[in-house]
């Protein structure tokens, strides 16, 4: 343990600082101004739907995991970079001042959030989950219409990979490729999209625990795990540390979904910011329907223990932010 790791982390303060940088980056990159290099700027209505889907809402867990993993592998280097740029990130144009590993991490944090946002836009549409409430406000297709929602999701997905491939020299080509590969695998047919396909095909069925775990490992867990690994890929780490972080990401990814299943039956819509009881009403298999409420809660706690044990095996000097996020994921009430 490093000397800095011997002291408790003020997680709320850490989250507040990270979110300030991420929110400003998203606001700047998901904008008409950001598309000014194109021959024709993005249509105003499309950009409005994209911004509605991304800004002003959400836990931002995935970007936080990116930044926490980056901080862990960078150790003292990140604090130097962040402290040096802390004042800069509050003024226009500051994103261009962030260079090197921190630039890669910030772009990765925003890219993974854009993929998450696009998936929510599409999942909420009538052809999928047909939901009308997301992040405490009407879903995108309710607000803008189905066609605009479909295009907004498509555009957000494309923008995510554009962020990871800047046309300057701020990210080395090999790093761009690695980050794109991690994100694409997590989002595609062997990740989030594949898990959603299994979910849609499982309505009304009673899955085994292994089948349910596989579905959620893909649908939810893959992108959360990729967030951790993309953060790690923005720094420097050995094989043993990489494997430990993979185990951490897998455990947290599954734990998040187990807790989501619990909250779907224990919290109300106002608290969740989305329609409560939706899974049960749609006759979808969940950990609560399979295991019961108490056992599902216990399973989430067991996954948290697995995640924290993986961090202990990582050999990293300071994993306080990752540990704090793991505890927040499992102990949250919304």
UniProtKB/TrEMBL annotation:
Gene3D superfamilies: Farnesyl Diphosphate Synthase. InterPro entries: Isoprenoid_synthase_dom_sf, Polyprenyl_synt, Polyprenyl_synt_CS, Prenyl_diphosphate_synthase. CDD domains: Trans_IPPS_HT (cd00685). Keywords: Isoprene biosynthesis, Magnesium, Metal-binding, Transferase. One of its GO terms (cellular component) is cytoplasm. The lineage of its organism: Bacteria, Pseudomonadati, Pseudomonadota, Betaproteobacteria, Burkholderiales. This is Polyprenyl synthetase. GO terms for molecular function: metal ion binding; prenyltransferase activity. It comes from Rhodoferax fermentans. Belongs to the FPP/GGPP synthase family. NCBIfam families: FPPsyn. GO terms for biological process: terpenoid biosynthetic process. Its cofactor is Mg(2+).
């Amino acid at each position: 343990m490093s000397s800095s790791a011997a002291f408790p982390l003020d997680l709320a303060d850490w989250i507040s600082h990270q979110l300030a940088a991420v929110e400003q980056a998203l606001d700047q990159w998901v904008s008409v101004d950001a598309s000014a290099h194109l021959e024709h700027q993005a249509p105003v209505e499309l950009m409005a739907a994209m911004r509605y889907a991304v800004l002003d809402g959400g836990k931002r867990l995935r970007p936080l995991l990116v930044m926490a993993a980056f901080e862990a592998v960078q150790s003292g280097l990140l604090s130097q970079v962040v402290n040096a740029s802390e004042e800069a990130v509050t003024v226009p144009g500051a994103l261009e001042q962030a260079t090197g590993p921190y630039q890669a991490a910030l772009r990765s944090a925003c890219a993974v959030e854009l993929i998450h946002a696009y998936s929510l836009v599409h999942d909420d549409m009538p052809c999928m989950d047909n939901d009308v409430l997301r992040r405490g406000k009407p879903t995108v297709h309710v607000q803008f219409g189905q066609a605009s929602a479909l295009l907004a999701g498509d555009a957000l997905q494309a923008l995510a990979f554009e962020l990871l491939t800047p046309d300057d020299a701020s990210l080395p080509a090999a790093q761009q490729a690695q980050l794109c590969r991690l994100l694409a695998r997590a989002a595609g047919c062997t990740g989030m999209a594949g898990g959603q396909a299994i979910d849609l095909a499982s309505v009304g069925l009673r899955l085994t625990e292994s089948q349910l775990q596989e579905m959620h490992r893909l649908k939810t867990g893959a992108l959360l795990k990729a967030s951790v690994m993309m953060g790690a890929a923005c720094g420097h780490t050995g094989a043993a540390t990489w494997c430990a972080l993979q185990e951490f990401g897998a455990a947290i990814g599954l734990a998040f979904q187990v807790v989501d299943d619990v909250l779907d039956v224990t919290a109300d819509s106002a608290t969740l910011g989305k329609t409560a009881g939706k899974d049960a009403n749609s006759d979808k298999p969940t950990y609560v329907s399979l295991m019961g409420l108490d056992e599902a809660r216990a399973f989430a706690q067991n996954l948290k223990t697995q995640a924290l044990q993986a961090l202990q095996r990582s050999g990293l000097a300071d994993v306080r932010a990752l540990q704090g996020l793991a505890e927040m994921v499992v102990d949250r009430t919304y």
